[in-house]
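Q: What does the assembly look like in three dimensions?
Context provided by user:
Components: two
Sequences:
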Amino acid sequence: MTRESFDRHLQQLQDEVLVLGSMVDKAIDRSMRALKGRDMEMARQVVAGDRKINQKRLDIEERCVELIISQQPVASDLRIIVAVLNIIIDLERIGDHAEGTAKIALMIGDEPPLKPLIDLPRMAEKAGDMLRRSLVAFINRDVASAREISAEDDEIDNLYDQVYRELLVFMMEDPRTITRATRLIWVAHNLERSADRVTNICERVVFTVTGKMEEIGASKY
Amino acid sequence: MNPKIQTKELDFHYGKVQALKKVTLDIKEHQVTALIGPSGCGKSTFLRTLNRMNDVIPNARLEGAVFLDGLNIYAPEVDVVEVRKRVGMVFQQPNPFPKSIYENVIFGPRMLGLNHRTNLNDVVEKSLRASGLWDEVKDNLGKSGMALSGGQQQRLCIARALAIEPEIILMDEPCSSLDPISTLRIEELMQELKGKYTIVIVTHNMQQAARASDWTGFFLLGEMVEYGPTSEIFSRPKDKRTEDYITGRFG
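A: Here is the predicted structure of the complete assembly.
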């Protein structure tokens, strides 16, 4: 018995997850550049691009269903497909958070800046980095690395605290900044949630390898 | 969960060929246990040791023990007829006798000395109801068992096995000659019957093992490689050989 064709399909499925991951990674990066650089065109592109991300997720889901029907996978094959089905949901949601950031960039438009953006781009960079590495860990079935990445969620939580406190001070000092500051808190929240979703992906890496679901990145939020 | 059957270090030889190697296994009461593995792995041989069906094979030799409720069924004082009364069997090909449905079902009880008509009628109805065939044949019990469809014949054979009120039913690939709907009926039946009986099934169909059994044992080259709850064997097997076999990457 050989299952070359099934193996090929499983490989392609995981390649597609990487493609989706890279679309989402780009969305995080571009939404932050749009916000920081007041680039409305780029923000609109991120919003439009989210539909492609959603479609890609549905396509991958359909492939998973086809493989389940045609191959009736068990054991590690089944775990890979179950992991993919879950990971693509997290990726799509991270895409939604990036879209949310892009929409805030559009809302802010050319209002005068509240403050130079430093910690938010750092959060975006860190979230993107964690995302990329989590997918590499999935492909390599690297449990140790998945656990490490998950632990790094604390850095994002700390940055979120910092941004939140800083913006609170702005609002207390001058209530006229409340609207602008609240929008930036939403952005920080989007990024914080994105990193949490990355820890879900890391949990699926552990599940794929061991067959056991365990919570490895209990976020502060 | 109590073990209904326990095998201890069971070795079986066909002449010089060793078919089973030190198989130690607890089969749980009121559960469906599936035995899977490639052809020639020993699973059918193992099944047949559980009611001494291998006794008649020339040059066959068995070492170790099979305990049924703690009684070694290979002990010299044990009556093989008594063992087979407690451990019924259903085979791969439905094999009804060329007799009426009624006569097929009462064959066992009659051999064991039951002759009273009313009692026999009761046995027929009870057994055919239990095997899910009653409603289809109740108005035609005089019809030949051979005239039934394959799926019905197999359920007739199950009714025939149930008629002697066994405690355990062994099934050797009972669905391999049946269509998918008849197969599903037999699988559902196994789930119904396990409340009263203990069922051991040999199957080549891994999806069947996954669907119909509570426990699964994987055999390879006469060894029992892995045994555990079916959901665990099919989601996270511990042994690489089990993984390779059930995912179809064996060899």
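Follow-up: DSSP finds seven helices and no strands in chain A.
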